[in-house]
Specification:
Elements lengths: L3 E3 L2 E4 L5 H10 L18 H15 L9 E6 L4 E10 L4 E7 L10 H16 L4 E7 L3 H9 L3 E12 L2 E11 H7 L1
Antiparallel strand pairs: 1-2, 2-3, 3-4, 4-5, 6-8, 7-8
Helix pairs in contact: 1-2
The structure holds coenzyme A.
Length: 185
């Protein structure tokens, strides 16, 4: 089983006991996903979120992939706090990174930045990607700050594309080139 470490986090494949955390994260309404209005304006799909983890577990259980498109995030001392992964858009040859840390009590301590750096390094080491992208909405301050902190450059913005609770937000896209990442990492 792979384990990648960087700073305050360790990334590892999903295991069965994680599913209880996913159920808690989607049923206890702590508000962690209020920030996470999707790029297309849809609300997070809780049932689909758990289902995706179970399918990943079934797929990877006895057949570890050469490259993990999703890994779980633990703190350095072993607390499971979230997940990170990539969606490969074949048609446009784009690698889109997504991250969730539902355990809000530890936000702002650098776990998000460490997990992103760790996973992006893994991705660049194991694919031919020239760049990675990430997408969010202009109301998601933590994600926008995280992207800026890692050197992502805004390269797409759709003004007022997303509406939530009667308020309009921009859909914002960022990219980070392999060269820029290597220069900073
Ligand atoms: C985005 C996320 C992964 C960041 O996790 P994290 O562990 O707080 O990351 P970091 O500690 O590296 O902090 C990133 C930035 O968020 C800021 N931040 C953290 N909590 C915040 C809050 N409640 N309000 C405003 N900013 C906040 C931090 O100050 C930091 O910015 P800074 O370094 O310029 O001060 C986490 O907030 C999360 O899971 N959000 C919900 C899911 C989501 O929106 N994912 C992105 C989908 S596009």
């Amino acid at each position: 089983m792979i384990e990648l470490r960087h700073g305050s986090v360790a990334l590892r494949p999903i295991k069965e006991s994680d599913i209880a955390d996913y159920i808690r994260w989607t049923t206890d309404k702590t508000g962690w996903d209020d920030w996470e209005i999707a790029w297309n304006g849809n609300d997070p799909d809780d049932a689909g979120y758990i289902d995706a983890q179970i399918r990943q577990l079934e797929r990877e259980g006895d057949n570890p992939p050469d490259f993990y498109t999703a890994l779980e995030i633990d703190t350095a001392d072993g607390r499971h706090i979230g997940s990170i992964g990539v969606y490969y858009d074949k048609d446009n040859d784009k690698y889109e990174i997504g991250i969730s840390i539902p355990e809000m009590d530890i936000w702002g301590k650098g776990h998000g930045a460490d997990a992103m750096m760790c996973y992006i390094k893994y991705l660049f080491d194991n694919t031919n990607a020239d760049a990675v992208i990430t997408r969010t909405n202009s109301g998601n301050i933590p994600m926008m700050r995280l992207a800026a902190k890692l050197g992502f450059v805004e390269d797409e913005r759709h003004i007022g594309h997303i509406t939530r609770d009667g308020k309009a937000y921009d859909a914002v896209g960022y990219s980070l080139s392999r060269a820029a990442f290597n220069a900073n990492f």
